[in-house]
Amino acid sequence: MHALARLSPEVRQYLLVTGNYWAFTLTDGSLRMLVVLHFHSLGYTPLQIAALFLFYEIFGVVTNLVGGYLGARLGLNRTMNIGLGMQVLALLMLTVPAAWLTVPWVMAAQALSGIAKDLNKMSAKSSIKLLVPDTQQGTLYKWVAILTGSKNALKGVGFFLGGALLAVLGFNGAVLAMAAALALIWLASLVLLKKDLGRAKAKPKFRDMLSKSRAINILSAARLFLFGARDVWFVVALPVYLSSVLGWDFWLVGGFLASWVIGYGVVQSVAPRITGKQSGHVPDGRAAFLWAASLAGLPALIALGLGAGWSAQAVLLGGLLLFGVLFAVNSSLHSYLIVSYAKEDGVSLDVGFYYMSNALGRLIGTLLSGWVFQAHGLEACLWVSSAFVLAAALISIALPRHGMQPTR
C-alpha cells in the first residue's frame, strides 16, 4: 500500500481502471464458457446456444453509441461503475432455479451482460486519454496496448476459469462465486475511482453521439470491416469445422481457441515494440494501411491451401497463428489511433462511436459466419474475410499521417 501511495494520481487511476477492466473481463470470459458448457450438457443444440448470445452482440452496438453520450454527461467513473453493477445483476439472474433458466431468461441476462461489457470497455479506453498528456503519445500507445492486450489474454484465461468453476462448484455455485467477487470490486471502485472522470465541460446533446470527426469516421469504417473479417470465420465456422471435419472434441476446440485468444492478447500488449515505438515512432494512418494490407491476403491463402487438398490441420493451425499475430497488431494499432484522435473534452463520445462500429462489425461477421459457412463452407468464409480486410486497408488510406491534424 505504501508503494501504491507513492505513485502519481494518474498512475493510480490507470491501475484502478485496468483492475476493474481485468476483473470484468475474467467474469465475461468465464460466463460465456459456463453458458456454453452448461446448456450443451442440458441438450441444447449449437444453434440454440448461439441464440443465447444474440442479444449480447446486438446490445453492444447500441450501448457503445449511447454509452459514449452517457459517459460525457455523467462521467466515466459512473459509466464504469454502472457496467460493473449490471454485470453483477446479470450473474445473479443466472442463479435462479434450473426450471427458470428458459431461453428468453438467459437471453435477457446475456443482453444485460452485453450492455455491461461495452459500458466497461468504453469507460476504460476513454479514461486513458484523460490520464496521459497529449505530448506523450508514446506513453499513450503503450498504456492502450497493455490495457487492450491484457484484456484479451484474460478473456482467454476466463474460458479456462469458467470450465474449472463449473467442474468444482457447478453452474449455480460458479455464477454465485463470480457475482460475489465482482461485487467486492464494484464496491471498491465506487469509493476509489476519481469522481467526474471524463465528464464533458459542455453538456453534449443527443445528436452529438454521431462523430463529426472525419478521421474517426474513417477509422470506424475500417474497424467495422477489420472485425467483421475476423468473426466471419472465427466465431461459428472455425469451431464447427474443427469439430465436425477434423473430429476435435469440445474440450480440445475450447482449449485451443482459449489459448489462441491468450496469445493474441500477449501480442497486442507488445504491439508498440513491433510497430517501431522503440525507435521513437508512433503509428499513423500509413501504418494502419500497411498492417491491414499485410493481413489482407492471408485468409485467401488459407482458403487456397484447403482447396488444394493440403493437410487441413496444418494449413489452419499455421494460418491461424500468423493471422493472430497480424490481427493483434492491427487491433492494437487501431485502439491507439482512436484514443489519440478523440478530443479530450467528451472523449467517450468519440470512443463510444468507434466501438459501436467495432460491435457492428462483430455482429455482421457473426451472422455471416453462420450463413456463409452453412451455405458454402469454410473456404467461402475465408474469401469473405480477405475481402473485408482489403476493404479496411483501402479505407485506411484516407487516415491522417504524421504532420497532418485530424480534421473535424
UniProtKB/TrEMBL annotation:
<dbReference type="InterPro" id="IPR047769">
    <property type="entry name" value="MFS_ArsJ"/>
</dbReference>
<feature type="transmembrane region" description="Helical">
    <location>
        <begin position="351"/>
        <end position="374"/>
    </location>
</feature>
<feature type="transmembrane region" description="Helical">
    <location>
        <begin position="248"/>
        <end position="267"/>
    </location>
</feature>
<keyword id="KW-0812">Transmembrane</keyword>
<feature type="transmembrane region" description="Helical">
    <location>
        <begin position="82"/>
        <end position="103"/>
    </location>
</feature>
<feature type="transmembrane region" description="Helical">
    <location>
        <begin position="316"/>
        <end position="339"/>
    </location>
</feature>
<feature type="transmembrane region" description="Helical">
    <location>
        <begin position="288"/>
        <end position="310"/>
    </location>
</feature>
<dbReference type="InterPro" id="IPR036259">
    <property type="entry name" value="MFS_trans_sf"/>
</dbReference>
<feature type="transmembrane region" description="Helical">
    <location>
        <begin position="380"/>
        <end position="399"/>
    </location>
</feature>
<protein>
    <submittedName>
        <fullName>Predicted arabinose efflux permease, MFS family</fullName>
    </submittedName>
</protein>
<dbReference type="InterPro" id="IPR011701">
    <property type="entry name" value="MFS"/>
</dbReference>
<keyword id="KW-0472">Membrane</keyword>
<keyword id="KW-1133">Transmembrane helix</keyword>
<dbReference type="GO" id="GO:0022857">
    <property type="term" value="F:transmembrane transporter activity"/>
</dbReference>
<feature type="transmembrane region" description="Helical">
    <location>
        <begin position="21"/>
        <end position="41"/>
    </location>
</feature>
<feature type="transmembrane region" description="Helical">
    <location>
        <begin position="47"/>
        <end position="70"/>
    </location>
</feature>
<dbReference type="Pfam" id="PF07690">
    <property type="entry name" value="MFS_1"/>
</dbReference>
<feature type="transmembrane region" description="Helical">
    <location>
        <begin position="214"/>
        <end position="242"/>
    </location>
</feature>
<feature type="transmembrane region" description="Helical">
    <location>
        <begin position="160"/>
        <end position="193"/>
    </location>
</feature>
